[in-house]
Amino acid sequence: MIFDAVPTGGSLAAVGETTGSGIGGCDGQNCGAITIVGGTIRAYGGTSGAAGIGGGAGYSGSGTGGGTISISGGDVTAFGGHGGAGIGCGEGGAESMVDISISGGIVTAAGGSSGGASIGGDNYKGGWTVNISGGIVHAVGAHEQLPGIIGSPPRATATLLPRSGSITGSNTVVITDLIHSNIACEGGLIATNGRGRLLSDHVSIPHSWCIPSNVVFDVAVEQSLTIGAETVVTNAGSINVYGTLAVDGVLENIGLIRVYGMFTVDGEYVNFGQAFSALPIGGTGVVTGAVPVGVGLAGSAADPIEINVNTVSTDGYGFTFSDGCLNFCWKGHYLLYGTGAPTANRICVARDTDVDLVLSNVNVRVTAGDVCAFDVYPGACAHLFLAGTNTFLGGSRTAGMHVPEGAAMFIDCASGVAACPTNGALVALGSASSAGIGGHLYESSGCVTISGGHVTARGGGAAYQYGGAGIGGGHAGTGGVVTLYGGVVDAQGSYNAEAIGGGSSGEAATGHISGNAFVFANTPVAGLDFRRGVLITPDGGQMYGAASAVTADTALPADRSLIVTNGQELIIGQNVTFINNGTITNLGAIVVYGTFINNGTIIGHEPQQTPVPPAGIGAINVSADDVVLAWPSTPSPVSVLFGKDRLTDRWERLDTEWSPTNAVWPRGRQKFFKRECP
Amino acid sequence: MWALRISNARRRKQVDMTGAGISHIGRNGKACVYALCLADVCSAPSLFGEPGDADQPFVININALDENAYYEGFQFHGDHVELTPATENMHYLILGTGEKTNIAIRVAPPISYGEDSMTHVMLSNVYVSTSGQADLSPFLLENGPPVYVTLAGSNAFITGWHPIYSDTEKEYGEAYNHAAGFRFPLVPR
Fold it and tell me: Does the pTM exceed 0.80?
């Protein structure tokens, strides 16, 4: 059976009752070959398990295969009944088989309400091959609680029949929740669970289409997305373009488009939503609507968007303010400053947003339950640069700074190593059973990286046994990924929680301590890899690696101790004041560029006051694999190395291994380097 | 017990056949070709084709069938109309008014046909519901060559009540219909 339509279009609604498919087989019947090349077709499988297009339901035990289904055009919507597929096998007692190929058109398919595949097998034994090489395919669930599935649902039992397929082509768009692992995803634009990416370097949207509001997809560097000349696309979702966005047809934006790479309009671009373009829009087409162009998105590192957190009351450039929350949904650079006085104005970093936030004397304290002072949504990334003293305390059951699974937070001081010792502190206080930085009650943590500043993180506790980690999970939450390679970190878990790692009853964190991290913890730290730095716990203090530096003012408490072993060097940074109130056993060397005050006990060698070595990089040698950075003349036991990509204006601290005379960094994207002495 | 009556949410749009451009359909079932030009269904006029060719399809109006009439290329059996192509590659045009009918369409295999043969059926504003008629598909392809269905206007083929298709309803006591809306089982050619 072949379906087509006259040039001006035609439609068909085919509806099966109970066990009959919309188009295909009746009760217990396989169906023959179905080809759709045009027309608007809606097919509804009967409620007892028939496929929308394909096999009938097979309670009689006979086959319910979908036959061979080919779609190369048209607008096709298919709903399966109960456990039947939207397009494919009906639900049945006997093994059945369907071959599905989609090479064009717009296809929307939903499996039956008890979990048939959207496109593919039923929820039992059906075998299938699914090959998608073109068109726009939405494979959705029958209702909000059911996922869209291409292939067969996880509950489907193993079968001797084939289950295989592929998604290919540069004119292919697939949106669903689950794609069976036997289907090779090799090309096109594929979005699963609302998150998409291009698997081909160049993708052209093949038909007029509306990008759904719950879909976010990225166009990576070196990739391009094209809206074809005869195509009208409405974007209600979010598109992040790091490569090229070319509009030859019509693009109407009512969602969010962020273009960090090239944006060319030779057709028409109409913006009713939110949009940024890092560069001016090129091309000869028509552009209407508000499109900020020619700026480094929202502010730049040198000229950030400034926001007074204590007094903000309305939306501003690059952010919104509603219900007491500053929402950052555009990539950019922002300076958040306060008076130091408490405010209930919260900070939220929206999903899939990457922001640089300089925090200067911000003091957020929230009293309402389950309301968080600083919230980084899954998929988002917050780079914090500390200036002054900043404090975050959320309402009950919330982390001081919420970094859930899938989210990331990077903490550094605002102006490099030299400004850190006296300028750059963060205090994150978790409320009941939640982490200082990381998960709420019952939540695991995402990724937390600390490079500089003085960070104090306190987990909250309740009822003696339900505690949050200082950095990591809330009660019953795992510790996520914690990387510490600079600054002074003081982490305390509450009740049975770890200082760094899991909340009470939670699993430990992964990650490492390296570089110049100087860490205080009130519990042992499990799960992390100790490469360099200093860790001080109630059981004693230990230094890792050959050399490490203290880069922020700190003091060793009276009830704590530290051992510097033979061959190790502990550097006290040039602007740092280190006060020893406890006991230091120095069998190696303590090199003091700054100030060392001893109010406690020193066993072994005395600290050595030493001139500060020159900063900067003396020579760069590029090999096939590495970049070797040599220091000027005076050997320095510890350096702090920064790098930045060519297209960014943000220096990032590089976590690399170095010797007293040089550092080695793997070649990759072009980077600029600078070095500071602690 | 499913003593439900699903209300008919909306009636299908009526189609004005006069406006569609068919001046008349001959008693032999052929449309007069010079007038065969619906807004959506327009064939190039031809004076040379044979009945059943692309430019002289067999034509019926499914909403105006007469049991006493003879329709070339069709057989009308009261509850269904059967397309009976004498040879391969016959062309049919089934018109409707958009009004619902319970007369099903069945495509019989040609008496003889080859590997590449096909029966062509154009549907224009046909609305068939076989709700309550046990196991009767509104459109059935029996064994034989494939059918090339060309859609014009708005068409619907419904076996019975469906929860998410609003134009269906079911009366208490009505038989279940386990057939497919558009049925073409896997059978040998």
Answer: no
Asked if A3 lies within 8 A of B159 by C-beta distance, the reply is: no
B148 backbone dihedrals φ, ψ, rounded to 5° = -95, 110
pLDDT confidence band for A300 (50 / 70 / 90): low
| H-type alpha helices, A390-545 | 416-419
Q: Which of A26, A91, A98, A113 to mutate to test the interface with B (most CBs of B within 10 A)?
A: A26
pLDDT surpassing 70 at residue B44: no
CB A128 within 8 Å of CB A98: yes
Q: Is B133 part of any domain?
A: yes
Q: Which residues of chain B have a CB within 8 Å of the CB of A39?
A: 151
Mean of the per-residue pLDDT values of chain A:
88
Q: How far apart are CA A162 and CA A151, in angstroms?
A: 11
ipTM over 0.85: no
pLDDT in tens, B88-145: 899 999 999 999 999 999 998 888 888 888 999 999 999 999 988 888 899 998 778 8
The CA–CA distances, whole Å, from A622 to A403, A626, A662 equal 38, 6, 13
Mean pLDDT of A466-486: 94
Q: Is A277 exposed, middle or buried (0-12, 13-18, 19+ CB in 10 A)?
A: buried
**Minimum-distance CB partner of B164 among A11, A19, A79:** A79
- Residue range A189-199: mean pLDDT, rounded: 90
Query: Closest chain B residue to A2 measured between Cα atoms?
Result: B148
Q: What one-character-per-residue DSSP string does A255-288 give?
A: SEEEESSEEEESSEEEESSEEEESS--BSSSEEE
3-state secondary structure of A96: coil
pLDDT of A150 higher than 80: yes
A197, with CB counted inside 10 A (0-12, 13-18, 19+), is middle
Quote the CA–CA distance of A555 and A522 in Å, as a whole number: 15
The pair of structure tokens assigned to A400 is: 């001081």
- For A319, A363, A641, the CA distances from A422, given in Å and listed in that order, are 30, 18, 20
Q: For position A670, what pLDDT does the model report?
A: 66
In which band, very low, low, confident or very high, does the pLDDT at B186 lie, cut at 50, 70 and 90? low
Has residue A640 got a pLDDT over 70? yes
Task: Give the pLDDT band of residue A416 (cuts 50, 70, 90).
Answer: low
Exposure string over A620-659, b if 16+ CB within 10 A, otherwise e = eeeeeeebebebeeeebbbbbbbbbeeeeeeebbbbbebe
Question: Cβ–Cβ of A9/B162 closer than 8 Å?
Answer: no
Q: Residue B30 carries which DSSP code?
A: B
- CA A286/CA A6 separation, integer angstroms: 33
Cβ <8 Å between B162 and A16: yes
Q: Report the residue of chain B nearest A55, measured CA to CA.
A: B185
The answer to whether the CB atoms of A15 and B148 lie below 8 A apart is: no
Strands A195-198 and A189-192: antiparallel
Please give the residue range of the domain that contains residue B31: 21-162+173-189
Buried b (16+ CB within 10 A) or exposed e, A388-405: bbbbbbbbbbbbbbbbbb
Provide the token pair at A64. 């319910």
Residue with tokens 């699903």: B6
Is the torsion defined by CA of A396, A397, A400, A404 positive or negative? negative
> What is the rounded distance in angstroms from the CA atom of residue B178 to the CA atom of residue B130?
11
Q: Which of A57, A73, A71 is nearest to A119 (CA)?
A: A71
Q: Which long-range contacts (CB under 8 A, 24 or more apart) does A266-271 make?
A: A267/A227, A267/A229
Contact list, A33 vs chain B (CB under 8 Å): 146
Residue A477 confidence (pLDDT): 94
pLDDT, tens digit, 9 for 90 and up, residues A244-282: 999 999 999 998 888 877 899 999 999 888 887 777 788
Q: Which residues, other chains included, contact A659 with Cβ-Cβ below 8 Å and sequence gap of 6+?
A: none
